Amino acid sequence: MQITKQKINIKYLVVFMLLLNCCLVYGLEPPTKVVAKDAPNDAGGNIDIFWQLSVSDPTLEGYHILRRSEPEPEPVAVGFIGRGRNSFTDEGTTDGVKYSYQVIAVQESEEAASEWSNLVSSKPQWFHTGRINVIVFTFIFTFLIVFYINRAKRGANLFVRKIAGLLAVDEAIGRATEMGKPILYVPGLTGISDVATIAAMNILGEVAKKVATCDSQLIVPNTDPIVFTVAQEVVKEAYTQAGRPDAYKSDSVYFVTDSQFAYAAAVDGIMTRERPATNFFMGYFYAEALILAETGASTGAVQIAGTDSVMQLPFFIVACDYTLMGEELYAASAYLSREPLLLGGLIGQDWGKVVIVAVLILTSVIGLLTNLQVLKLF
Amino acid sequence: MKIRLPLILVLVTGIVGALPFIIPHGIAQSFDNEFRNSILRIIAAFSLVLGVGSIVRHHTYKIKWKRENWQYSWILLISLVITSIIGLFGGIEGTGALPTSVRGFSFDIQTIFVYMAIPLGATMFAMLSFFMASAAYRAFRARNFEATLLLIAAFIMMLGSVPLSSYIFPRLPGFAEWILTVPNTAAKRGMGFGIALGSLATSLKIILGIERGWLGGTK
Question: Does domain A158-338 have CATH number 1.10.3300?
Answer without folding.
Answer: no
